[in-house]
């Protein structure tokens, strides 16, 4: 097979079978992928630790298990260690009825087998299941300028934007293959030109905008293009501290799920914007102004996917993407205050807060954990989206503060303040 891409002697040798037939197929797949997008070459992955989007052993995904089996049989491993998206199940903290369990058993019947395959190919450890691999507690943190082979839209947009690393929105398996051969195609967000902003977004709100709604508005407007955002400094400052990182985590996830944003620049805050400023903006960049009215318009545009719009919610998910340590502490304080105002001790709706195993471990060592669980809240490490994919769980009336979960499920989105009021019985829906 002839390829348009210019390959080095090393890359040609792998493609021609020097390292075995399986490695040749891996290289061929990556090269074909690059050719489709017009890449002229492959470039080295400089942050070896990969992140995989495929964390679930869905029984119907036979090609996935077959590919993993071939990789394992050939003794092939990734260049670095892998983190991977959250597991779909955690019965201990997310209770299911019998029918739901049967549904999950059928859907994820290959979960145990698949996790063993992941361990053999390079998974860091059995606690490496989270969509927020870049947080300090997890430690899969590329540096500015690092080239990655990652998937998972919220992780990629965070790495590109907040850390200044370089990665395209890769699909499942392409992220793994790039981590195996140590090369990715040079196109899109990996290139200097591909990181230029084609939109100027001006935030002109009278109060701090909800990260999830602001990200949603931008994502739906710019789609897969790159926005340069002005005006957030008055609300979140110019330093990447814990609060700002948490805000941008949720903001970016909404831009990526409500659109297809893989990179954004925040004026005076994100690394490339601090370094290059408006030089990052193309001459023909379009303009989008976001004020209070625009955010309210976007918020009211979200459809109610419940069969009965007036139904009472029986489950609330907070943490998609996974919550940071700071967010868990903040939510504990918010709910404690709201319950005190109502005269109650426990939440009135089943509430699950999701976070990485590492963050949960840190949180459990603090008084906050006892306070939060004492209020009836469960802390889990599952993927809420995977949980809601079960046809049986679609009967659940779920509310969330995640625009990502809202987009991919029937869960209904509410702002943080409203969520707190509903689950503590302070207000209805």
Structure in words:
The chain has 429 residues and is α/β, with parallel strands linked by helices. The chain folds into three domains: 9-190, Aconitase, domain 3, CATH 3.30.499; 194-300, no CATH class; 315-423, Aconitase, domain 3, CATH 3.30.499. Helix content is 41%, strand content 13%. It has helices spanning 9-15, 21-36, 62-73, 98-107, 111-121, 153-161, 174-181, 211-222, 233-236, 242-258, 271-276, 292-300, 325-342, 357-364, 367-374, 384-388, 403-408, 416-423; strands at residues 42-44, 50-52, 82-84, 183-185, 197-203, 227-230, 265-266, 281-290, 315-323, 351-355, 378-380, 398-400, 412-413. Strands 11-10-9-12-13 form a five-stranded parallel beta sheet. Strand 5 (197-203), helix 8 (211-222) and strand 6 form a beta-alpha-beta unit. The relative contact order is 0.13. The model has no long low-confidence stretch (mean pLDDT 96).
Give a quick rundown of the structure.
With 429 residues, the chain is an alpha/beta fold. It contains 18 helices and 13 strands.
What class would the helix/strand composition place it in? alpha/beta
Mean pLDDT across the residues is 96
Radius of gyration: 22 Å
Strand content: 5-15%
Helix tally equals: 18
Instruction: State the major sheet.
Output: 5 strands, parallel
Assembly state (oligomeric): single chain
CATH topology of the largest domain: Aconitase, domain 3
How many strands? 13
Tally of separate domains: 3
Tags for this model:
429 residues, alpha/beta, 3 domains, 18 helices, Aconitase, domain 3, single chain
Set out the fold topology.
Layout: H1 9-15, H2 21-36, E1 42-44, E2 50-52, H3 62-73, E3 82-84, H4 98-107, H5 111-121, H6 153-161, H7 174-181, E4 183-185, E5 197-203, H8 211-222, E6 227-230, H9 233-236, H10 242-258, E7 265-266, H11 271-276, E8 281-290, H12 292-300, E9 315-323, H13 325-342, E10 351-355, H14 357-364, H15 367-374, E11 378-380, H16 384-388, E12 398-400, H17 403-408, E13 412-413, H18 416-423
Parallel strand pairs: 2-3, 5-6, 5-8, 6-7, 9-10, 9-12, 10-11, 12-13
Antiparallel strand pairs: 1-4
Helix pairs in contact: 2-7, 3-5, 6-10, 8-10, 8-12, 13-15
């Amino acid at each position: 097979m002839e390829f348009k891409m210019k390959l080095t002697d090393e890359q040609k040798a792998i493609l021609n079978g020097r390292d075995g037939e399986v490695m040749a197929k891996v290289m061929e797949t990556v090269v074909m992928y690059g050719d489709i997008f017009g890449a002229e070459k492959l470039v080295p992955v400089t942050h070896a630790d990969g992140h995989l989007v495929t964390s679930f052993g869905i029984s119907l995904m036979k090609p996935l298990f077959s590919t993993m089996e071939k990789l394992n049989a050939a003794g092939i491993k990734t260049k670095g260690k892998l983190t991977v998206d959250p597991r779909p199940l955690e019965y201990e903290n997310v209770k299911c009825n019998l029918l739901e369990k049967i549904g999950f058993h059928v859907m994820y019947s290959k979960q145990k087998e698949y996790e063993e395959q992941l361990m053999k190919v390079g998974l860091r450890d059995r606690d490496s299941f989270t969509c927020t691999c870049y947080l300090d507690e997890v430690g899969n943190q590329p540096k500015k300028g690092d080239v990655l082979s990652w998937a998972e839209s919220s992780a990629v947009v965070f790495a590109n934007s907040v850390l200044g690393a370089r990665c395209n929105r890769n699909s499942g398996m392409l992220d793994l293959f790039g981590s195996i051969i140590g090369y990715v195609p040079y196109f899109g967000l990996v290139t200097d030109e591909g990181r230029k902003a084609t939109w100027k977004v001006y935030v002109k709100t009278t109060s701090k905008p909800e990260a999830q709604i602001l990200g949603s508005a931008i994502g739906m407007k710019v789609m897969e293009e790159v926005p340069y955002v002005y005006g957030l400094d008055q609300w979140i400052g110019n330093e990447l501290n814990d609060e700002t990182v948490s805000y941008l985590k949720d903001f970016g996830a909404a831009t990526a799920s409500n659109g297809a944003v893989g990179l954004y620049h925040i004026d005076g805050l994100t690394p490339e914007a601090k370094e290059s400023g408006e030089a990052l903006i193309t001459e023909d960049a379009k303009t989008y102004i976001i004020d209070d009215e625009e955010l309210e318009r976007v918020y009211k545009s979200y459809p109610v996917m419940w069969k009965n719009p007036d139904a009472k919610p029986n489950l609330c998910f907070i943490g998609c993407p996974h919550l940071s340590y700071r967010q868990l502490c903040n939510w504990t304080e918010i709910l404690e205050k709201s319950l005190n105002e109502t005269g109650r001790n426990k939440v009135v709706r089943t509430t699950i807060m999701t976070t990485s195993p590492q963050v949960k471990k840190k949180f459990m060592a603090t008084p906050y954990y006892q306070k939060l669980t004492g209020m009836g809240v469960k802390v889990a490490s599952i993927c809420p989206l995977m949980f809601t994919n079960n046809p049986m769980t679609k009967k659940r009336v779920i509310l969330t503060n995640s625009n990502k979960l809202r987009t991919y499920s029937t869960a209904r989105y509410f702002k943080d303040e409203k969520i707190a009021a509903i689950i503590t019985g302070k207000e209805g829906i």
